[in-house]
Amino acid sequence: MTFVKSLLLAGAIVGLAGAVQAGAIVIKAPYARVSTPMSKSAAAFMEIENSGADADRLIGVTADVSAVAELHTHEESAGGVMRMVEVKGGILVPAHGSSLLARGGDHVMLMGLKHPLKQGDVVHLTLSFQRAGAVEVDVPVDNTRQGPMAPMKMGD
User: Fold this and answer.
1) Which whole number is the average pLDDT over 130-144?
2) Are strands 56-63 and 122-129 parallel, antiparallel or unpaired?
3) Of 148, 139, 126, nearest to 59 (Cα)?
4) pLDDT attached to residue 57
5) C-alpha–C-alpha distance, residues 74 and 131, integer Å
6) pLDDT at 149 (0 to 100)
7) Rounded to whole angstroms, how far apart are CA atoms 149 and 48?
8) So which domain of life are we looking at (predicted)?
9) Mean pLDDT score of the chain
10) Each residue of 39-55: pLDDT tens digit?
11) Is the CA virtual torsion 18, 28, 152, 57 positive or negative?
12) Is 135 left (phi over 0), alpha (psi -120 to 50) or beta?
């Protein structure tokens, strides 16, 4: 790939990663990652801001690239074993606050990928909120992006 094509691709990824607003909800800096080219699953991350006076809750997600999309988190048991679990009841986005979907914490899990995802692809998500309703987000696949790590949650 030539330098110019690489520069254009990088610009497109940054442009796609811009904020999406729906009412009081703003989706910032979304990106997705896959672990290997043969992976059957991937994860998506983003920051969700709520400028409204009322809390909202992310209660569901659908994706165009996978058979199943769920809200997940990582938990550490009292014995120190890490496990990924579905978030039942959704993810709270506090009034005048934000929720971070980040590696090692809450995230969107894409399972049963319909085709391999590669650097520069775009995943179309529909996020479902209790108050804001459906919010459509185009999420660039960026396996080079590190992003913040979420603090680990302690379970029972």
Assistant:
1) 95
2) antiparallel
3) 126
4) 98
5) 26
6) 52
7) 15
8) Bacteria
9) 85
10) 999 999 999 999 999 99
11) negative
12) beta
Residue with structure tokens 């914490």? 105
In single-letter form, the type of residue at position 146 comes to: Q
Could you count the other beta carbons within 10 Å of the beta carbon of residue 134? 11
The matching CATH number, chosen from 3.10.280.10, 2.40.50.140, 3.10.350.10, 2.60.40.1890, for 3-154 is: 2.60.40.1890
Write down the domain spans for the chain.
3-154
Q: Is 99 helix (H, G, I), strand (E, B) or coil?
A: strand
Rounded Cα gap, residues 16 and 137, in angstroms: 9
pLDDT in tens, 53-100: 999 999 999 999 999 999 999 888 888 888 889 999 999 999 999 999
pLDDT tier at 21 (50, 70, 90 boundaries)? confident
Give the angle subtended at the CA of 75 by the CAs of 71 and 80, to the nearest 5°.
160
Which residues have CB under 8 Å from 105's CB, separation 6+?
73, 74, 149, 150, 151, 152, 153
